């Protein structure tokens, strides 16, 4: 029995797999180190096979040197698209960092090797909650769908115009800081007013040493009011998923 292999289809599928695996390594929620590398590789192979028919149409083998160049280009494209998604979802982590800073938790910073996040309690808690919501709300499926559609906008082996992702990343960083302030803003205002109140109390009664009570008071206020932010997190994550998909699909 003679088995005939379509070399063009195999090459196109491998190029698609390189873009996908580069994307999965960087983009949340797949970048979480708690997901074994073997699972990521199997997911990339499965997705590459799923889009093989899409990427094979119109593909022409470029030769050995051209194929190696195409592999490198696909690696760059996948990494750039994954970084766009990472920047968008960094808004939640940044909001947690602001709460830790103003709430007095920043002294207890630690490095989480699973999510690769260096921050205090609320930074890591917000990051883990966002990852859980991405899987629970099927937001990861929208991200994968956006990645699959990039093969129409950015054909395999064609590279990418770096001005487009750089412009998107610049706008995403600005929106990330704005979103972080909007998420943590109400709690930050309350903590700031608490500091102002303690300052006025110290001016009125210097012997009271009100700032000695400031740290436990701010921690108590943060713990009591941070629960209100978790109520809004599902809607925030949904909005960020839409923004990430729009950015990934708009690069081409």
TrEMBL record:
Entry-linked Pfam families: Bac_export_1
InterPro entries: T3SS_IM_R (IPR002010)
Top-level taxon of origin: Bacteria
Claim: Transmembrane helix is one of the keywords in the record: yes
Membrane spanning stretches: 12-32, 67-92, 176-198, 210-233
Compartments it resides in: Cell membrane
Membrane topology (UniProt): Multi-pass membrane protein
Main location: membrane
Keywords: Cell membrane, Cell projection, Cilium, Flagellum, Membrane, Transmembrane, Transmembrane helix
Recorded family membership: Belongs to the FliR/MopE/SpaR family.
Listed name of the protein: Flagellar biosynthetic protein FliR
């Amino acid at each position: 029995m003679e088995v005939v292999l379509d070399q063009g289809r195999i090459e196109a599928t491998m190029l698609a797999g390189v873009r996908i695996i580069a994307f999965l390594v960087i983009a949340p929620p797949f970048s979480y180190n708690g997901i074994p590398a073997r699972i990521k590789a199997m997911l990339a192979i499965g997705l590459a096979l799923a889009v093989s028919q899409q990427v094979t149409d119109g593909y022409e083998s470029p030769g050995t040197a051209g194929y190696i160049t195409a592999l490198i280009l696909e690696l760059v494209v996948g990494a750039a698209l994954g970084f766009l998604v990472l920047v968008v979802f960094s808004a939640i982590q940044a909001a947690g960092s602001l709460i830790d800073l103003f709430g007095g938790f920043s002294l207890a910073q630690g490095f989480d090797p699973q999510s690769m996040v260096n921050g205090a309690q609320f930074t890591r808690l917000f990051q883990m909650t966002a990852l859980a919501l991405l899987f629970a709300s099927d937001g990861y499926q929208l991200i994968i769908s956006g990645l699959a559609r990039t093969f129409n906008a950015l054909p395999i082996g064609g590279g990418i115009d770096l001005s487009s992702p750089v412009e998107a990343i610049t706008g995403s960083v600005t929106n990330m800081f704005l979103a972080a302030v909007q998420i943590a803003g109400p709690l930050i205002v309350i903590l700031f007013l608490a500091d102002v109140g303690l300052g006025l109390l110290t001016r009125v009664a210097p012997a009271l040493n009100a700032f000695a009570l400031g740290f436990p008071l701010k921690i108590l206020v943060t713990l009591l009011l941070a629960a209100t932010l978790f109520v809004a997190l599902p809607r925030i994550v949904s909005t960020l998923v839409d923004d990430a998909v729009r950015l990934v699909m708009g690069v081409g």
